[in-house]
Fold:
Amino acid sequence: MTVTSTDLREVGMLITCALRPKLNPAADTMYRQLLGRYRTEQEFRTATGYVLDGMDLVVLSDAADLGLILGPRRDSLFAARLADVPNTAGVEQRLLVGLITAGVAAYAYPTPADFDDDRVRYVRVADLERFLRETCENLKRTADAPLDDEGLEEAWRAYERMPAVRRAEKGRTTGRLTPACTTYWVTNVLQWLTDQGLARLTERHGPETFQLLERFRVQVRELSGHEAYKLLAEARTHDSGLDATVPPEPPISLEDVVDLGGAGPDEAGHQEAEQHDIQQDDGVSQ
Structure:
């Protein structure tokens, strides 16, 4: 088959679909059909590859249920940058975001082999913050010499200096987490991953619990060669925290608590009524 102008137009349409991370081929007929062409027609696949090469993009996966997952080369216009994460104006903030992003990957996939395991992973904000904090505190205690990666050294020191929680004390944001604490940044990164179609909030497993999606596993596989991932993954293998493949237990709601030591208002009233009826019955019998 000769690639026509119509084919090239559809190549562009396929790439446009792939660049919309939350678009699923199962929910979009056009995307599903174009992905089918890519998977079954060699000429169409080759033409798509040439266009992607010119855009500094590579195909990481073409699974029918996930769609066309693309990865940018380092200098690509489409490469995700730490500055893309909301509220990352300063250098220290971008270092924190980079450390936390590598931390998510290491927490969920502590060995390179784990990237071949397609079981669902869960990350809870508090658990990830604890893991990162303990790792940074351990680095502070044991670091006899600076790390070879200067940026990584600055990142973990910045994380360790920052308190886990700090809330605004006045103004319209009173009571909210501020950017002066690490829990804010852990939450910010996980929410950003959600916006990118790489994670989703799963409140049924507790507030601030995120499920990492298959797209995240595919895209962060390359992180296994980065220094930050290696350092954090090594720490994770010695971490006694939760297994990320096990859904966290949802918190117990007060409404679900049964007071075995006493009756609730409705039950107490019912018992009083029953006692009154018994007394009346007793009076008649006497």
